[in-house]
Amino acid sequence: MRVVVGLFLSWFLVTGSVFAQKNLLQGKVTDENNLPIQGASILLQGTVRGVQTNQEGKYELKDFPAGNYQLVVSLVGFGTLEKEFSIGEKETKTLDIVLREAEFQLDEFRISASRGILSQSNMPEISDFQINAGKKNEVIRLAEINANLAMNNSRQIFGRTPGISIWENDGSGIQLGVASRGLSPNRSWEFNVRMNGYDITPDPMGYPEAYFTPPMEVVEEIQIIRGASSLQYGPQFGGLMNFVLRKPDISTRFTAESINTVGSNGLFSSFNYVGGTEGKWNYTAYYQKRRGEGWRENGFFNTDHAHLELNYAASNKLKLGYEMTYMTTESQQPGGQTDAQFEQDSQQSTRSRNWFNTPWFIPSLSAEYLISNNTKLSWKAFGTFAERNSVGFMRPINQEDDGSNRQVDRDFYTTYGSEVRLQHTYELFGQEQTLMSGLRYFNGTIDRNQLGTGTTGSDLDLSVADGDFRRKLDFNNINLAAFAENVFRLNNKLLFTAGIRLENIQSNMEGQLNVSNGNPQQLTPETRSRTFALLGLGAEYHVGKGTEFYSNFSQAYRPVLISDLTPPATTDVIDPNLQDARGYNFDFGYRGKISSYLNFDLSYFFLNYDNRIGTIAQANTDGSIYNFRTNLGRSVSQGFEGYVEFDPITAFLGSSRFGYLHLFASVAVINATYKDFAVTSVSNGVISERNLSGNLVENAPRNINRFGATYSLGKFSMTWQMSDISETFSDASNTTTPNAAGTVGLIPAYQVQDLSASWKVYKQHSLKAGINNLTDERYFTRRAGGYPGPGIMPADGRTFYLTLGLKF
Strands, DSSP E only, in 333-457? Predict the structure, then answer.
């Protein structure tokens, strides 16, 4: 042990002396009153090197080549300062900087410490390797939100984002189920879900369900681009949802943070984070442990998350990065309820032997290279090595668990991909224009094993009798894509965007569908290949300094999924000409900020969803009936999405020693209807046909309204929020009377309130507390036809939490 410690100390001293021999730029950034400024960005222009000032306003830049440089110092609320300097080999240079406040930003900067109005904003027109101009987009900054982040409370997190529908059936916070514009929230599968810009789902082309969600305590912001993201990120109708994790702290060599939460039903969560910068290196790592008994009976969960990120500035032009994320979950599933059980006691559970498990490993490599001041290149390589495992008694919920052998289902995911992006700026019409282009390769393989005969036990035991499964399927999706999008600025007020995405998808499926009387039933191998283009146009007109009109039209598609190609029985038939669902999104809106007291985004949307896939009954020549899966129809979602946040005290008084009050309203009116959708039913061997034209799309509430208020005084803030969601149907037939198993029927309207508060105790230490579902409403947002039900999936009742955050 002494030898190991000695070697470590020797290495530390040697490397420390090496670092000391490199050149060093240091200094302090202050305001005009000689007060230190924390968080100012220090950048060597034309390089990848940059840091931030610490709490004392100090900064250090180490180990960069001798030469002449331009130092750029900036921070919101202050004017940007540029300063030329030169530095020699092994030289230590001190540059102290004084930043002057920008008058037109004074108010916004002055109130930035009060929570609320800065928690929701829009993405800049151009960010690193992203074109956001002319698109409906939102940025949710989690540090500005009073919410139960330990439990990933999506109702609070997306509270200010209009039109987001949420399935609230997973109180463990392991998975998010969100959607917009009348689309299905099923594990957020209508979004292209990414983390730090790369895919984290099993297979976005064939199995897009998002089983992995990063801990919200490490998420810096959530970027949402509605359907207009199809050109740059993928064809999904819902658009992009990108979790941006906290980056390494570039203001200090080492920082540490521990956030610990306790709450109702045995909740315990411990999130621990370290990060820092040393010379050309920066790093970050976190580990989270979360467990609890759940609000319902048989609702235990136990999760572990770990993440590591390393970045290295190989030169002034090249930055290299590595990330790896690991998650493992152990979740007991309470199962569904019938309507009678829900009315009697929504906390009860008749399933004590159902379990769910998702080991998840995501590695990533990245590189960023500055070709010139106008051109830069980004490369990401990523993979997902994961499982989706479940064991349980899966018969209808109105059948008693008889203690027999459970069903075991196991998926194994192996995916890898790479994406290259090029950003280039050039001058045209006397204005700076931006071109974004890229190439993408993705290969996803799914090994599906289902209908295994499990044990008669009650714990998480995935063993299978004879080690075999009745269903064994292999899927593979290969996706090649090329895209280009350009911002054309005609003047300082008007810009247009235009782009194209070329897609090629190859899908392969083979394997065993089932075993009947001891005889394996093989699935007919299926191979599909298609190539097509998606087009998009956008525009943006700046009315004044802070407001703008925007509009966008983008094509979208949903590829034929694995579930579409897998018949429930061997007698079912899949249309050999089954086509991908195609359509488009259209937006027109007005958004912006008026001074520092009003933030708004008001828009109309239209989503056309064509070639929807469904199953109808058909007759053979001998009179026998079979189910035929094909493209059956079209739906349209259109409506209004509005977000307004207002600070009346700042608006009317300018400042107040009694604190500030932020009021917000996030409202959406959604008309999602089927325009044409053929269905059939069979009675006494006779097929009857009808059309769902005019029916409302399932899982699409007509009104999604959320209102709230945040009061802040110094280091204290408190937020109240109410969600008011209208009724919706659980099936396309718009069934109102529930069936005996609770799998179809009306999902009633509901209102739920949340109250959260935070207080910075000393410097950056904090104390947070809250009550979720303040009035203990009993409601549900989902009727599940299968796992994790079947039946009604109740949302959690009233729960409490208390969080202590320590930062060093």
Answer: 355-357, 360-370, 375-392, 407-428, 431-453
